[in-house]
Specification:
The protein is 48% helix and 14% strand. By secondary structure, it is of the alpha/beta class. It folds into 2 domains: 179 residues, NAD(P)-binding Rossmann-like Domain (Rossmann fold, 3-Layer(aba) Sandwich), CATH 3.40.50; 85 residues, N-(1-d-carboxylethyl)-l-norvaline Dehydrogenase, domain 2 (Orthogonal Bundle). Helix 1 packs across helix 2 and helix 2 packs antiparallel against helix 3. The protein binds 3-hydroxybutanoyl-coenzyme A. 3-hydroxybutanoyl-coenzyme A binds next to helix 2, helix 7, helix 9 and helix 10.
Length: 282
Amino acid sequence: MKLVGVVGGGTMGAGIAEVCAKAGSDVLVLETKQEFADAATKRVTTSISRGVAKGKISQDDADAAIARVRVTLDIDEFADRDLVVEAAPEIESLKFEIFGKLDTIVKPSGILATNTSSIPVIKVATATKRPEQVLGMHFFNPVPLMPLVEIISTLVTSPETAAAVTDYAKNTLGKTTVQAGDRSGFIVNALLIPYLCQAIKMLDSGYATAEDIDAAMKGGCGYPMGPLTLVDTIGLDITLAAAESLYAEFAEPHLAPPALLRRMVESGRLGRKVGRGFYKYD
Ligand code: 3HC
């Protein structure tokens, strides 16, 4: 896995590019417009520089890692990639299109992974002619700080593909890995999203304030962030997509996404990334 491709340079894609580059891989990030490409480059360099300021990485290593990341607008440049991780918006038709294109461009031995948190991995795998080389590689936000990667094998992912990607995540990226089946939510989101939605329903019912819900879970359970701050961090749109996917998969009434979450997404209050979610950010 010397040559890695990342589709999408948003919060997750930039984080994935950062950890791969810091681990020594040559990383190419695909973006759709020059302004998005510039923003992706800035995300990676800002975060790596923050690591220098925090004493986690030397200036020399940071410079070398930054030099290993390049952003392109041309998907054809992905031809030589050993591993491509897709971190595009959670839109099923868009992911189909991306996997279909990647399949025709990336060399036959290349592995294609999706960082989706809500779309069944088999759906994108079947957009390719190499479904045995497609799997889920699910990172957590913020990627440079969260140790976990969920590895999701579909019914047709080959054991060799899962083993190679697990080895890369564990031994090259230094992440903790867990294996999960191809079910909505995998392990983490199947547990986390219902908890977050319950906090939103509690707020909506007027039962407690946002500040008190967050303070309760931090102080009472030792969580690093309260649930509403966490939804703001993940993004309300991402949280809604994950909740909708769980509801569609299991059809259990308690998994129905909260109306308040829908209304906030519709009104553009997507969380920290836009400066406004359950809280306001400068
Ligand atoms: N590079 C390297 N290291 C960095 C860094 C950077 N850019 N920024 C910070 N650090 C280091 C710090 O030096 C510090 O290290 P130390 O513990 O050795 O001193 C550590 O990271 C923590 O940094 P801070 O002290 O600045 O930050 P906090 O203590 O406020 O912690 C947090 C930040 C780790 C994000 C914490 O708030 C947390 O764990 N939050 C929960 C996040 C979470 O639950 N994420 C999962 C979301 S779900 C998801 O992503 C799935 C999706 O599908 C929905």
